[in-house]
Task: structure prediction
Amino acid sequence: MTDQDRKLWFDDLPSADPNDPDAAERAARRAERMKRRSTAGGGGPGSRRGLVLGSVVGGFVLVLVVAFFALFQPLKGDGEGKPFGLVVPAGIGVSGVADLLAEKGVVTNATLFEVRATISGKRSELFFGPHTFRKDMSFGAALAELGQPPQKETRTVVIPEGLSRSETSEVAADAGLKGDYMEASVASPLLRPNAFGAQGRASNLEGFLFPATYELAPDDGVQELVDQQLEAFRQNIKSVDLSYAKSKNLNVYDVLTIASMVEREVSVARERPTVAAVIYNRLSRGEPLFIDATIRFAVDNWEQPLTQSELAIDSPYNTRLNGGLPPGPIGSPGLASIEAAARPAETDAWLYVVKPGTCGEHVFSDDLAEHNRNVAKYQQAQAEAGGSPTVCP
Result:
């Protein structure tokens, strides 16, 4: 308490009543008691509030200091140990990049790294592709490296959504990548299908080879492409809400299998959840899926019309003859189809046919008689067109 505080305090004391002979003595004793309290530091109005306020301010300052050191790491530098190359796959997002760097030991915490990228305005300034890092880098140093376009000459390889391994192998060969893609995509220590519910059904990595645009170094071959695809899948699957699928006793591998069929059946993006719902509804009804893309996968015929012998092939992938899901994915679906397969549309539709005069749009129905009428319209339009009645730009 300052002298001025004390002055204001004591000025508020009641004056002695001249008509009361003991008033003066009582006032003097009261003043002396209050003075002793004030000089002892335990009494005066506001002293407790001052202590509380001081504690709050001190705690806030401490939080700021901790946050500063956590996010800006002023004592960290460019990392430790020998530099190493790391390819950051395209399409995994900032959170995926953060997870990848934390997993490789480049940064200490994925969440804090993402926060630092956000508050520093760097989220949209990160370059995918090959980079050089060290272990235990500061967030700032890692962001600085990611903010630099890859210095090495790179080769861009575009893997479309839904391709099977055999089709992707052709893309890799056309891109001039060295090695056997089919062999490289049989197994990998980076991903175990059984960890995603394959339960011994997967004989290779079909379904997990995520489709995206990849940047490869000039000397990279098919193995580097496969590694990037698997890493991209691991990062993307984290964002998928699988709660609905799990409520239907479906695991990730089942969802990938459904998504791979959706990818082949859909030409119009908005139909993905509806086609996924049709598959769910047919499974629930015990109806064969009748998705001929599974037969195409079995016979590896993706371009030519299916023959009657192919349609009748004795294969677990023949969804005309076998009920339930095929043994596994028939290709590697993109994120949109995976999300649709994990949470389909709310509809009772279980039948569909191509709508004439459109570019692959479908007419959906939950009634067999109505579906047969839609099929008749399609066949009539097909006969009038002398071929496919679809119209694409």
